[in-house]
Amino acid sequence: MKAFDRENSVWSRFSEEERLEMEAYSKKYRHFLDTARTERLAAAEIISQAEAQGFRPLESYTGLKAGDKVYWNQKGKSVILAVIGTDPIETGMKIVGSHIDCPRLDVKAMPVVEKDGIVYLKTHYYGGLLKYQWVCLPLSLIGVVYTADGRRVDISIGEDADDPVLFINDLLPHLGRKQAEKKLSEAIEGEMLMPLVGTNSEEEKTKPAILQLLKEKYNIEEEDFASAELEIIPAVKSRDVGLDRSMIMSHGHDDRVCSYGNLAAILTAKPGVKTQMALFADKEEIGSVGNTGVNSSYFLDFTAELLALQGHTEEIWLRRALRHSEVLSADVCAAYDPVFADAYEENNAAKLGYGICLCKYTGARGKSGSNDANAEFLSKVRQIFNTANVPWQTGELGKVDQGGGGTIAYIMADWGCDVVDCGVAMHSMHAPLEIVAKADAYSGYLAYKAFFESV
Question: d(Cα 351, Cα 258) in Å, to the nearest integer?
């Protein structure tokens, strides 16, 4: 099979056996999507699968040897998995970095409001989304609330078939003439993204009745919303798309399609000469900030702890390990969509169903905010994929002056690592429901596994 081929899709290049393996992988990925619905749920699922394969928390180790499997749980919202190699860690690691947060709506600290007998939740959108896409959808409410006495309450409404769902209204077209005259970005404003919560009450006001329902079901008070993390996402599970079932629709492909490939790869890769590390980060969609984002110190702390378990406690050993490390920044790329051809430069755009995408640079316009991988490292990654028969392609995020975006690549490059963006191309990125090709999702897994196993 030709690994790099812009004329023939992955499906046409795969044997019947490979197609069956792809389909089996896709079913497991869909289960992950339907389980790992938020970054907290994703972190818990990743740790559960890792522990089933013999990974143990860092604090359980007093020393390290080749083949040891270690994990770090960062605040329940980011995870790092490591398989120790035969070479010392300071000689460099093989790192695949993905993220498990997704665009969504977050519930505000004082969210419950009543307007003319209708109760709503106030929200603040998270990440770069198009607000008009979030109206008239069934929505789930998922997250945690910590009460005044420190008790944790897990919330999940809208996920089960018998659950009620939330819903954000839009204006009917009969009355929408003025709305239709606005730009798409202004037709629905952020403060209008208020899901309906209820209308029924025997009292004059409805809000107290809704708060009483929350009290009865979850034993939480209105004040408890001040110490909560509640997310609103589409109440729609993953589905196959197309009469040929070649695609998957779901919320959160960005970036769980790469995160699941990363997880599956490190769980199945043969332990190598180099230490293998899989990063599952939070907060990428808002700039990798906070103590669960990659701009925090936890990845460096974890690496330093591993080095300490091998007898190296000085900072210079950490710097050496990072300087000699190689990284695939596993984040999605835009796939060419002929319906919106004007936004792309077709010759340099990735295509749906043509394999994992190597993206030399991201950023905006003049590559601002980009890592811009060096040619030497790109050459090495090409050789790894070609040798392992991994279907791959190249791509970039639209026309030069069209827009742009960023990943965690530049942050890890700041540490001295060799880094290139390498992710799954997709349609409808950052929409409530997104599209990936099964062939690309599976190619991502093959790519990360081959990278982990390379020297």
Answer: 17
Q: How far is CA 62 from CA 24, 93, 230, in A?
A: 38, 21, 38
Q: Which amino acid is at 113?
A: V
pLDDT surpasses 90 at 366:
no
pLDDT digits (tens, 9 = 90+) for 316-333: 999 999 999 999 999 999
- How far, in Å, CA of 190 to CA of 401, rounded? 26
Residue 57 banded pLDDT, cuts 50, 70, 90: very high
Q: Please calculate the CA angle 136-225-291 and round it to the nearest 5 degrees.
A: 95
Of 151, 285, 185, which Cα lies nearest the Cα of 231?
285
Nearest Cα to Cα of residue 37 among 285, 241, 230, 245: 230
DSSP symbol at 192: G
CA distance to 268, 288, 293, 369, per residue, from 366 (Å): 39, 22, 25, 9
Q: Which two tokens stand for residue 147?
A: 């009460």
pLDDT at 204 over 80: no
Torsion over CA: 84, 85, 86, 92 (sign): negative
Mean per-residue pLDDT over the chain, rounded = 96
311 close to 123: Cβ distance less than 8 angstroms:
no
pLDDT, tens digit, 9 for 90 and up, residues 93-129: 999 999 999 999 999 999 999 999 999 999 999 999 9
Whole-angstrom Cα distance, residue 101 to residue 282?
Answer: 5
d(CA 352, CA 370): 23
Candidate from 104-108, 200-204, 393-397 with smallest mean pLDDT = 200-204
Contact 363, 427 (CB under 8 A): no
Q: Give the strands of the sheet with 196-198, arranged side by side.
A: 152-157, 139-146, 228-234, 104-115, 118-126, 196-198
Give the number of C-alpha atoms closer than 13 A to the C-alpha of residue 144, restricted to the C-beta side.
Answer: 11
Q: Tell me how far apart the alpha carbons of residues 7 and 2 are, in angstroms, rounded to a whole number.
A: 11
Give the integer Cα–Cα distance in Å for 112 and 211: 8
13 near 230, Cβ under 8 Å?
no
Q: Which domains can be identified in the chain, with CATH numbers?
A: 10-102+251-453 (3.40.630.10), 104-234 (2.30.250.10)
Contact 120, 351 (CB under 8 A): no
Whether the CB-CB separation of 444 and 356 falls below 8 Å is answered with yes
